[in-house]
Design brief:
44% of the residues lie in helices and 17% in strands. By secondary structure, it is α/β, with parallel strands linked by helices.
Length: 133
């Protein structure tokens, strides 16, 4: 990525410290990655007007799972057009179908290969940029 290009911001919401560290390591050369460990922590960021270019969201989290977090994020006007992709270890067709039905941008299964994850993120961000023009 060019030093002159503005780096895109990715918010990663996951309660697993190991997976957070692995994902940050995969993405940090190309993106500014912010991590939080719960949906509630993510909501606090948005109170401060933080606006990422993409949200990667785990489904299986304590207190507020990814489904509830998704719905709350979609209720924040600042985030209505921000793409949200699930990044989860779930591989069930029902979960994938549900994610499509509620309007998730993508459903990425973890653990992900670095090149696959970067490719999917690039595709999401390009499609989002095209839809904003």
């Amino acid at each position: 990525m060019s030093d002159n290009a503005e780096r895109k911001k990715i918010l990663l919401i996951d309660d697993d410290d190991v997976y957070l560290a692995i994902t940050v390591a995969m993405l940090s050369d190309d993106y500014d990655v912010t991590t939080v460990k719960s949906g509630k922590d993510a909501l606090f960021l948005f109170i401060r007007k933080y606006k990422p270019d993409l949200i990667l969201l785990d489904i299986m989290m304590p207190e507020m799972d990814g489904w509830e977090t998704f719905n709350k994020l979609r209720g924040i006007s600042l985030l209505r057009r921000v793409p949200i992709a699930f990044l989860t270890c779930l591989k069930n067709e029902d979960e994938i179908k549900r994610s499509r039905e509620i309007g998730a941008t993508d459903f990425i299964t973890k653990p992900s290969d670095k090149s696959e994850l970067l490719g999917r993120i690039k595709k999401i961000l390009e499609a989002h940029a095209d839809s904003c023009n």
